[in-house]
Structures are given as C-alpha cells and as structure tokens.
Amino acid sequence: MPDDYPLPWIGEVEQYLAEREAGGAFEVYDDSEELGDDFLYFITGASEEMLLAVAADVAALPGLPPGVYAIVTDDEAEEMGVGRRIALT
Q1: Helix (H) or strand (E) holding 2
Q2: Has residue 1 been placed in a domain?
Q3: pTM for this one?
Q4: Which of 24, 52, 82, 83 ranks highest by number of CB atoms within 10 Å?
Q5: What whole-number distance in Å separates Cα of residue 77 and Cα of residue 35?
Q6: pLDDT at residue 77 tops 50
Q7: Does 48 map to a domain?
Q8: Range of the domain at 77
C-alpha cells in the first residue's frame, strides 16, 4: 500500500494474519469488510480462547487506532457485527 494511504494499518493487519494463518492454528475467513466506521476481519477454525488471543495480538500491532475490539459470533448470526463485544484496547 502507498505510504499516503489513509488507513495504512490495514495492510499490516492483513500481512500479520496471513503469516500466522499459514501455521494452521486458525483460518482467515473471507476478505475484510468495512462496516460503518469499523473494519472487520473474520477469523475462525480455532477455540474462542485462541481466536481472542490472535485478536489481542492484532490489537497490539503498532499504528492501529484506539478502540480495537473483537466480536464473538457464529455463522448463524443474522448480520455482520452482531455478537458479544470484547474490548481489546
């Protein structure tokens, strides 16, 4: 991504998740999505504890904006962004 991209941290998150997904501990499901003022990443394929640890690691990456959180949900949710919200920063 260009240095002047308005949300440069997006590329950092995508790279971080791709590198760790290769280890097989979890799966990145689908592409990230913008929902209002939030940017959603979908990870699956591991225990809730493991997925929250991955989300916490992402939240700790340098350059991310404040207010990072995780939504614990399942594939039965009626819409994106619905579920138990857990603050990470």
Answers
A1: none
A2: no
A3: 0.85
A4: 52
A5: 15
A6: yes
A7: yes
A8: 9-87
